[in-house]
Amino acid sequence: MTIADGSLATLTGKPFEGTIMQIRIASSNARDASSACDEVIQTLADGHWSLIIAGFNTEHDASLLQQRLTQAFDCPIMAGSSCLGALGIEQQTQAQAGLVLWALADHSGNYGVGACSQGDDPRQAAQQALEKALAQSGREYESPALLWCILPPGQEECVLQGFSDVVGPNVPVLGGSSADNDVSGQWQQFHRQGVGVDLIQVAVFFPSGSVGVSFSSGYQPSGQTLVATQVAGRQLMELDGQPAAQRFNQCIDGAIEQQLEGGNVLALTTLHPLGRCIPMADGPDDYLLSHPDAVTESGALTLFSEVAQDESLELMTGSIDGLVNRAGKVLENARQLLPKEEKPVGALMIYCAGCMLTIGEQVHAMAADVHANAAMPIMGLYTFGEQGCFVDGQNRHGNLMISAVVFGQ
């Protein structure tokens, strides 16, 4: 199914009284999942919500969360696990709450959530999930303003192709890949109908106001360019005609010397990712990052995203200060893209889990800076992969990225 642009219609849901879009955040640090649910349900009990998106620590039982939240709220729900918790900002700032809900009420908009197990054909599964979301919204043959996704890590490029098959390439897709706390594969997703480790989830937004989106990183090009001379999907066998791990190690002053015969390098490479230049017609170029996570016994580098054969890759550099300060700037960029006459009423954010783990306790400074830059309710997820679009409008999957969507009224 492909769709065309269409005009806004009326939501068949239970709104707040009045015509104003409202966004609220409910968060809990309770260690017990049932107690956490009690807290967030009580916070949002007075609302008639159009959509709820949740982020949670994998220490919580996803099945229990799904059961309690679907009993409490009758709107579309989507949720994904977030590394060490999720970011929740409203009256207070919680950088790593165990459970955070982002609740939207918009009686003049339309919303829907679709999900499908990834299986052996993630592109087809993505198509099916999006078609379900559009059907739930009541706007099957129209183009939404935004897609927000929560995905299992591993096949994100194929998933984005599947979304494009349905709505075309020009609808912004933002979101992230579910995460656990130790990269052991314990990530999960849930929606109204089920819980899983491989659920492709997507929400369609036909909001009554505008959206501003931003997708960026806190890294700078080092000036060293490498060529991917032998690749296979997410495995980089050669750089500049040399074994990839060996050549990469030379460029980062021996930081992975002890792992050249095989081993995990995730933490060692967070401040030295590989970047693909995305030329911009106006303004400075952007960079889409790939994060090396391991060295194979044959000396190849495995990545969290795909690179192409013979693609030029820039060695990027980052710093703790840059990663702490960048999130607020990405949020501000998204806010500035709203029409001047519209007031920002809330935001969704994605912040790479690798960046969060690298800045450590500075995550609280990052959250405080985001709060200081925007007086609105915000939820953020710490993810193992980020989906977004630069100013050129093309949707991409990357690593170590930050994104924001700001909703206007």
TrEMBL record:
Domain FIST C-domain: 244-390
Pfam families assigned to the protein according to its UniProt record, in alphabetical order: FIST, FIST_C
Domain annotation FIST: ranges: 48-243
SMART domains cross-referenced by the UniProt entry: FIST (SM00897), FIST_C (SM01204)
PANTHER family named in the record: BLR0328 PROTEIN
Protein's name in the database: Histidine kinase
